[in-house]
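One-letter codes give the sequence; the integers encode the fold. A sample entry reads:
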Amino acid sequence: MKKHRLIFLPALCLLACIEGRAAVVELDLEKLTLRSSHIFCGEVIATESEWGDFLGLGRAMITKVKIKVSEVWKDSLGKRPEITREAESPGAPGKITEITIRYLGGRIGERWQRCAASPTFSRGEKVLVFASEFNNSLWTTGWFQGKYRLERTSPDQGRPGADGAGKLLVRGSQQLPVKKPMEAKALRLMVRRLLLERRSSGRGTREKRGADR
């Protein structure tokens, strides 16, 4: 019985998840993209759960997920302890090689916690992640809305012009900003377009303010 109480002792820390996914603010792809400081693809190479403070409410299980990055769609300059970069030239920020993100919930020994609003990650899983700062670390943006499984389709050797590698798919669903499975290449173009539109909009606003002075 004592073990059971220990499992649910930090329930106060899970107030954000108490109503499950219904409590999460729904994001579309534009909001998900613009609110994220980092967007990247990679493979989960390690997970580790530990007790930590959650928004000053008390202790909760928080899982750290280390991801080996294969492709970066959005980057934010500046040093962060969760990000490992490979220097390419003196003075340059360097290419991201690993990122560690966190989610609420996990397992420590025989004790576990599960938050309905949190995504889960498993070692060896290929993922697309939209991440932003939360609780002094990098977390998935919009809780479960910021994590997608990547899967490669079977090679299409019979189709003319096929490279035999198969297509890389992002596993979207109706509950997520990416509403259906689609090619990663196509989604990346959509994300890039949103970022370019935001930059153009910001530049236009700054130019108008300068003209009004």
User: Anything to note?
Assistant: The first strand starts at residue 38 and ends at 53. Residues 82 and 198 are 26 Å apart (CA to CA). The longest helix spans residues 184-212.
